[in-house]
Amino acid sequence: MDNNLLISLENSQTFVNEISELIQSSKQRAAVAVNAELTLLYWHVGKRINEYVLQGDRGDYGQQVITILAKKLTEQFGKGWGRTHLLYCIKFAEIFSDIEIVHALRGQLSWTHFKTLSYIEDPLKREFYATMVVQECWSTRTLDERIGSLLFERTAISKKPDETVIQELNLLRKQGQYNQSLVLKDPYILDFLELNDRYLEKDLEDAILREIEQFLLELGAGFTFITRQKRIQIDEDDFYIDLLFYNRKLKRLIAIELKTEKFKPAHKSQMELYLAWLAKYEQEEDENPPLGIILCTSKKQEQVELLDLKQSDIHIAEYLTVLPSKKLLEQRLHLAVKKAKQRFSH
Hints:
Residues 18-154 form the YhcG N-terminal domain. This is DUF1016 domain-containing protein. The chain is an alpha/beta fold. Helices cover 58% and strands 13% of the residues. The protein is built from 15 helices and six strands. A six-stranded mixed beta sheet has the order 1-6-5-4-3-2, sandwiched between helices. The longest helix has 42 residues, at 13-54.
């Protein structure tokens, strides 16, 4: 081979990168295909064991059957077919009983995703997480973190009637259409700010800006930071929006007001003024009306209800700078969801 050609190849990083990308892309497609096929296999194995071997028996006999089967499969195919794995397969086939759903998701969810989702007992919650994994391309680690942080219970959609939740998730799956209730949360967990017991609004704002990446993750998908202390002038008076974001999923400007006190009705009037100004002077033609989030240390539910914000572009939420125990937070959120659903039913 011509020495000049060898030298040219050695120096042509672009050419090497191109070949590398071809290899990586092919390996990735192969991995996805293998995962999809294995997922389908595990579903069929679980279904077969459950229907034709266990026949619904979860007693001593059923457990003995699984143990014996696992031993024989391990002897033939290796340790990947142990008793624990068979139990995963059985659970998977029970929870995802519709093979069409498995076919639809197996190219987008890994087997580990399916295992995690299978142990979410509430069907609506499981549907929420499965949809969000697909839409936002969550890794299994991210899925575990979101479940651990009680994301579903903190998201506004959890407080709506079940039928509405299903409709909004269907819209997201089929049309990629995000409703604001899929984005907004209450409470927001800001323990990563590591604030002292006493802090001012400026301290809170400064801490958020220092940890802006973490704050964006907590806000959710599609948020982009624009500016802090956005100055607006109305009748020669100056006002300042604490934090201004844009959400590309909702196609809306998002104004956030930070409060180091409990919510007061006057906060709503302040936010309405800001949103009206943003709609008039900042909103683009193809954007939806601006949305306001008032973050406060606490709120009284009846005051918020009387303000009738259900159809409003204002979201009032608490934030936590110190994370309580998961059990305590879970109890609190479940109670909030229960009360919210009761209000919708009246």
